[in-house]
Amino acid sequence: MTDAVVPDGHEDDDRRAGAEPTAAERMRERRRAAFAKAERVLWRPGFRRTVRERLAVLDAASEVYDLDGYADVYGDGIVEDLEQRVAALLGTEAAAFFPTGTMAQQVALRCWAGRTGSPTVALHALAHPEVHERHAFSQVSGLRPVRVTGEPRLPTAAEIRDFPEPFGTLMLELPLRDAGFVLPTWEELTEVVEAARERDAVVHFDGARLWECTPHFGRSLSEIAGLADSVYVSFYKSLDGFGGAALAGPRTLVEEARTWRHRYGGAVYQQFPTVLSALVGLERELPRLPDYVRHARVVAAALREGLAAAEVPWSRVHPEEPHTNEFRVWLPYDADVLMEAAVSQAEETGTFLFADAWDRGGPGLAFTEVSVRAQGLEWTADDVRAAVADFARRLPGA
């Protein structure tokens, strides 16, 4: 399952005019319509809302910023205020706003490459740049990614120490989304960072969802970010902003990054709507994330219990106790079969239990991602088990 280049439901925008929609396109339309009408979901992300609904987010803008101030021009004003707030939250000297995380991380890593003298970036085989960015590191930034491990977990300290070739930067994705939003323990993370430093490498955190990590580690954002030399955070993944990202770290690095941001086309004339949505997210969503994480564990346990009670031939909730408010569910059916069951349930009952797409994980095996946000807090364990029972009845052989 990818962080789509375009939001869910827009994949068919370039279809030939007049062409008949494919089965996949028809399913996307059904899924989008069912989601819009669903009365019960675990999460209602911004990209599945109408323009009017998204603009309503800015109704709270006056609560987080003085709207009588002037709008930004090429990164001043409100953009600088957001940067200062992020730096304070993460405990870094400075932060720079970027229109995308892909740009922010390319800039960060090429800056480190210049400082370390090495273009080699060690990362996980499932890291976002390796899976979802069309080889941007090598094609655009001249960096050389090397894969430390492909195991569905973060790299270990031993793997870092024993890696057979030199690298200038170690990049760690926290959490590792494509392994199931998994995190190491705090002790494991500190050991990995120490192992990289023993090799004279700098450490960069891909913290797109770093905001969600504090309950698992039992540490503050500044303590987590303080382990790394630089950190990237997203404003739309956890905080439901319109978009945007920030790169945080030493002031000299951030100043250099601003120069590269301009060169990469990231010096946008005005960005105040996106920045306002980020400020609203920091005010409203950030304090609630620990509640989402705690309730995700309730939902995950109820899903396991419900699937077992329904006697589904095999299932897995991974991790069994989620590390963040997001996790994966695996079932022994083809993806299209599971999508049909999920959408049919939503259409007929108004409950969309598995609202994300199902992806093929192997022959007769598929997985989906489950995210628990504000809407999910309304679900009790009994609600989840009842929804699982209804979903399971729609599967072949039930």
Automatic annotation (TrEMBL):
Belongs to the threonine aldolase family. Its cofactor is pyridoxal 5'-phosphate. Residues 8-28 have a biased composition (Basic and acidic residues). Keywords: Pyridoxal phosphate. Coiled coil: none annotated. Residues 73-305 form the Aromatic amino acid beta-eliminating lyase/threonine aldolase domain. Gene3D superfamilies: Aspartate Aminotransferase, domain 1, Type I PLP-dependent aspartate aminotransferase-like (Major domain). It holds the Pfam family Beta_elim_lyase. The lineage of its organism: Bacteria, Bacillati, Actinomycetota, Actinomycetes, Kitasatosporales. Residues 1-28 are annotated as: Disordered. This is Threonine aldolase family protein.
